[in-house]
TrEMBL record:
<dbReference type="GO" id="GO:0022857">
    <property type="term" value="F:transmembrane transporter activity"/>
</dbReference>
<feature type="transmembrane region" description="Helical">
    <location>
        <begin position="314"/>
        <end position="333"/>
    </location>
</feature>
<dbReference type="GO" id="GO:0005886">
    <property type="term" value="C:plasma membrane"/>
</dbReference>
<keyword id="KW-1003">Cell membrane</keyword>
<dbReference type="InterPro" id="IPR000522">
    <property type="entry name" value="ABC_transptr_permease_BtuC"/>
</dbReference>
<feature type="transmembrane region" description="Helical">
    <location>
        <begin position="126"/>
        <end position="147"/>
    </location>
</feature>
<feature type="transmembrane region" description="Helical">
    <location>
        <begin position="284"/>
        <end position="302"/>
    </location>
</feature>
<feature type="transmembrane region" description="Helical">
    <location>
        <begin position="67"/>
        <end position="87"/>
    </location>
</feature>
<protein>
    <submittedName>
        <fullName>ABC-type Fe3+-siderophore transport system, permease component</fullName>
    </submittedName>
</protein>
<feature type="transmembrane region" description="Helical">
    <location>
        <begin position="159"/>
        <end position="178"/>
    </location>
</feature>
<dbReference type="GO" id="GO:0033214">
    <property type="term" value="P:siderophore-iron import into cell"/>
</dbReference>
<feature type="transmembrane region" description="Helical">
    <location>
        <begin position="241"/>
        <end position="272"/>
    </location>
</feature>
<comment type="similarity">
    <text>Belongs to the binding-protein-dependent transport system permease family. FecCD subfamily.</text>
</comment>
<keyword id="KW-0472">Membrane</keyword>
<keyword id="KW-0812">Transmembrane</keyword>
<keyword id="KW-1133">Transmembrane helix</keyword>
<feature type="transmembrane region" description="Helical">
    <location>
        <begin position="99"/>
        <end position="120"/>
    </location>
</feature>
Length: 340
């Protein structure tokens, strides 16, 4: 069998795997709408969209609460997973995730600062404040990493990210000590949650997330070349500086938008890229769409599980992803030390 036929078969197999993953995503999305403190059959869920009854409590729950919550988890999970894959490619560090770029810390600091100094009228305004804080933090990390003769290096990026994260976390804690009354207004951002998000909150950000994910996928072939090393990439005509700038902007945009909607949800950007590479291989033309699908599946599943862990209360989804991600992070760290 020729190499061309082998590659075609492998590509067809990956397409089939992605299609199966999309079916799993549809099942997770349906479960997110149907299951909760008030669970309902899928037939009732379908009726809520096809033949809405204003007098039905189940129909109102589906259309006003569950749908927006599921869409939020889908958008945030996809955004964080794709941002994590880009971050690991940019830094060449398997432990990298959007949090190390200072995005979460910058967004939370911006919210805490605005709560302390100003009266923010609505959650929609909080979204753009959080997005601006994430962008500022990510830009600072990138600029600090690029200083010096060696330019941007994986170690320098990690160190700059850790420093900026620690700085903004300290500032946020200081502001909350000064303004303890403001803690309640940003508590769900600190813990991370997709509950209580209306469609009006998600709608302005969702198209941006979709555009950024599609743009990331368009860079897949170029990222493959970059992963071969800067010298090889430059020898093949790759404009590595421009590519890194684009990747950095997409990381800031995706992770910033996710934090702006749902708050401090950790480890999705760390876990999912490793799972996808084990599943689909290291080709970023497949890794990025795989991350978009599997990230959404992971966060939707975590949100459903959070509803039943300690009923009738719900565990914040940020806590659920931390419970999943911490053992995985320890495993990766131990494996890295053994290979060092």
């Amino acid at each position: 069998m020729s190499f061309r036929h082998l590659r075609a078969r492998r590509g067809a197999g990956r397409v089939l795997q992605l299609l199966l993953a999309l079916l799993v995503l549809a099942a997770a999305f349906s479960a997110s709408i149907a299951l909760g403190q008030i669970s309902m059959p899928l037939s009732v869920v379908m009726d809520a969209f096809i033949a809405f009854d204003p007098g039905s409590t189940e129909h109102i729950i589906v259309t006003t609460t569950r749908l927006s919550r599921a869409l939020t988890a889908l958008c945030v999970g996809s955004a964080l997973a794709v941002a994590g894959a880009l971050m690991q490619a940019l830094t060449r560090n398997p432990l990298a995730s959007p949090g190390i770029f200072g995005v979460n810390a910058g967004a939370l600091f911006a919210i805490a600062l605005s709560t302390t100094l100003f009266s923010v009228p609505s959650l929609q305004h909080y979204i753009w404040i959080a997005f601006a804080g994430a962008a500022v933090a990510g830009t600072l990390v990138y600029c600090l990493s690029a200083l010096g003769r060696d330019g941007l290096t994986p170690v320098r990026t990690v160190l700059a990210g850790a420093a900026i994260t620690a700085l903004f976390v300290s500032f946020t804690q200081g502001l909350l000590v000064i303004n303890q009354e403001g803690l309640d207004s940003i508590l769900f951002w600190l813990a991370g949650s997709v509950a209580g998000r209306s469609l009006d909150l998600v709608a302005p950000v969702a198209p941006f997330i979709l555009f950024a994910i599609v743009a990331s996928m368009a860079l897949g072939r170029h990222i493959n070349v970059l992963m071969s090393g800067d010298e090889v990439a430059k020898g093949l005509g790759q404009r590595t500086v421009i590519l890194r700038l684009l990747m950095g902007a997409l990381i800031i945009g995706l992770a910033g938008a996710a934090v702006a909607i749902a708050g401090n949800i950790v480890f999705v950007g760390l876990i999912v890229p490793h799972m996808v590479r084990a599943w689909l291989g290291a080709d970023y033309r497949w890794v990025l769409p795989g991350c978009a699908v599997l990230g959404a599946v992971l966060l939707l599943s975590a949100d459903v599980a959070a509803r039943f862990l300690i009923p009738p209360q719900e565990v914040p989804i940020g806590v659920m992803t931390a419970l999943l991600g911490t053992p995985f992070f320890i495993y990766l760290a131990r494996r890295g030390m053994q290979h060092a």
